[in-house]
Amino acid sequence: MISDREPVDLTGFFHAYARASLTGDAHVIAGAHGPGYVESAPSTVEAWIVDDEYREAVAMRSDGMSRLGVVDVSAEVLETTPAAPHHVLARVAWTLRFDRAGETRESRFEITYLVRLVEYPLILVAMSHEDEDEVMRRDGLL
Q1: Does the global pTM surpass 0.85?
Q2: Which of 56, 101, 114, 131 has the greatest number of CB atoms lying within 10 Å of its CB?
Q3: How far apart are CA 58 and CA 81, in angstroms?
Q4: Is the pLDDT of residue 50 over 60?
């Protein structure tokens, strides 16, 4: 988990999540999610159980992003909307900065999260507004 002692702060939560994404900190990333969660994009849906296999997948993804030249990851909470008691929808804009052969490129995309807010935030669902491969191709990274 990112923190169970601080008040609910989605901006800080997603900033910590972005830092963990950059460094490949699978423990922090896994702790940001419920025991299971769903990732959805226009062309795919995946359900994850947050366990050792998930942490290994996070580490592999981090290695892949490093090979692509990721040098910075940032997240900005654009909007939150109450969804149910103790749950919000958070629309987050992500920016990934890549250094490719001395040239810096950026890739921007949005994800809307269903987040449970009891003691600390937990991501239950992540809904990408675009397919990741399409964004990477659009931005010249694949």
Answers
A1: yes
A2: 114
A3: 28
A4: yes
